[in-house]
Design goal:
Elements: H1 5-8, H2 12-24, E1 34-37, H3 43-51, E2 57-61, H4 64-73, E3 79-81, E4 93-99, H5 108-117, E5 119-130, H6 136-145, H7 167-175, E6 178-192, H8 195-203, H9 208-211, H10 216-233, E7 242-255
Parallel strand pairs: 1-2, 1-4, 2-3, 4-5
Antiparallel strand pairs: 5-7, 6-7
Helix pairs in contact: 2-3, 5-7, 6-10, 8-10
């Protein structure tokens, strides 16, 4: 899957809001390194560097393009490439912080359990993931793939991201050995210029695996068909903009 740091940061303010909200719930940390897992272009890493000045902050991402952007943004911060489905730190950590990445990792509950065991006592696993598979912008994305013009490209191994497990499953996975587990949802309502802006948002994340299935000449028509489907689901507000509803799941787990 090909990611674009430039596309991602078009909506950096909206994307970083959830990162700030997650960070606000992280308690004071014991000694040890801080890892920004799925650091992307470094917008969330920058928040960690500012807050945890007495800790070493390390960014981890699987995508070279994102890492290049992160290194340019924070030249004094170490970044490394890693696959979060198998990645583990070289020594116990004080914080694993993950903003909107683990929804892409299959069987990520197993990764959470592995990482939780790699925390020092009092260390924190802090995770935020979009919980929006039932929202119109995702449902209509899947609907577009059924169109006869493009259905052949999606006949096998559909790139549809599965819905998240239930909060109960996360709690049960992390409660053993935890001093504290907190799980909650926040629904953000982002004013967007129009439905074309929603498409631009999706081009930075959710629709990337879909576009990767299409030949270059089919990508623009696919996106325009998707945009047209969004019009009825996102009617204009009083000022002409549209409101993108975006539920997110948050997890804070502190190791005993």
């Amino acid at each position: 899957m090909v990611w674009s740091a430039e596309q991602y940061v078009k909506f950096e303010g909206e994307r970083t809001r959830a990162a700030r909200d997650l960070l606000a719930q992280v308690p004071p940390l014991p000694a040890g390194p801080v890892y920004d897992l799925g650091c992307g272009p470094g917008n969330s890493t920058e928040l960690l560097v500012r807050r945890f000045e007495d800790h070493t902050v390390i960014g981890v991402d699987s995508d070279a393009n994102m890492l290049d952007a992160a290194r340019k943004r924070l030249p004094g911060t170490p970044f490394e490439q890693g696959d979060l489905s198998v990645w583990s730190p070289p020594s116990p950590a004080a914080l694993f912080y993950a903003n909107a990445v683990f929804q892409w990792v299959p069987e990520h509950i197993a990764a959470f359990k592995r990482l939780f065991k790699a925390l020092v006592p009092g260390g924190v696993l802090a995770v935020q993931m979009p919980d929006n598979r039932g929202e119109p912008n995702h449902v209509l994305m899947d609907e577009t793939t059924v169109d006869s013009r493009w259905s052949g490209f999606f006949a096998e191994n559909h790139p549809r991201r599965p819905p998240l497990p239930s909060p109960r499953q996360y709690y049960d996975a992390l409660a053993d050995g935890a001093a504290h587990v907190d799980i909650w949802h926040t629904v953000y309502n982002h004013p967007m210029a129009d439905t074309a802006a929603i498409v631009e948002w999706m081009k930075g994340t959710g629709i990337r695996p879909y576009l990767d299935r299409l030949p270059p000449e089919e990508q623009a028509p696919f996106l325009e068909s998707y945009r047209k489907r969004l019009v009825s689901a996102y009617p204009p507000l009083a000022d002409g903009r549209v409101l993108l509803r975006f539920p997110r799941l948050f997890i804070i787990a502190v190791r005993a």
